[in-house]
Design goal:
This protein is of the alpha+beta class. The chain is built from 2 helices and 7 strands. Helices cover 21% and strands 36% of the residues.
């Protein structure tokens, strides 16, 4: 599969010029994840975005996130959730630290109970 890294590079230059965005853990945002190498989770659409769950806020510039997929999966690498009237899965195996500049639009905030279950699943996935 050929990936259009040149188009992503043009978007990435615009993302770099954005201001840092204030956000909180448990929030789900559309995020410019871009095009990545191999089987790393890519963004979708012309802006190379996909929804992410904010796991931890380090400061106003850096956050740890986990990408979401609309496919309902519940295995060792995914954790099924419902949010904003939708169902999907957190991709536990693809957490990463990113700049808040990548955030585009806030979708919602995951309820506290589900978030605690996601954190527990992430802890188990790291072992």
């Amino acid at each position: 599969m050929n990936k259009d890294f040149d188009s992503w590079n043009q978007i990435k230059k615009k993302v770099q010029d954005r201001k840092d965005i204030f956000c909180n853990a448990r929030e789900i945002w559309w995020c410019a994840l871009g095009l990545n190498v191999g089987s790393e989770e890519d963004g979708k659409n012309e802006l190379f975005e996909r929804p992410i769950l904010i796991i931890k806020v380090f400061n106003h510039q850096m956050i740890r996130v986990a990408p979401l997929t609309s496919k309902q999966k519940d295995d060792a690498h995914h954790f099924a959730i419902t949010y904003d009237g939708r169902s999907g899965s957190i991709i536990l195996s693809q957490t990463k630290t990113i700049s808040t500049k990548r955030l585009s639009r806030k979708l919602c905030r995951l309820d506290k109970t589900q978030f605690e279950l996601v954190v527990h699943a992430l802890q188990n996935a790291l072992i």
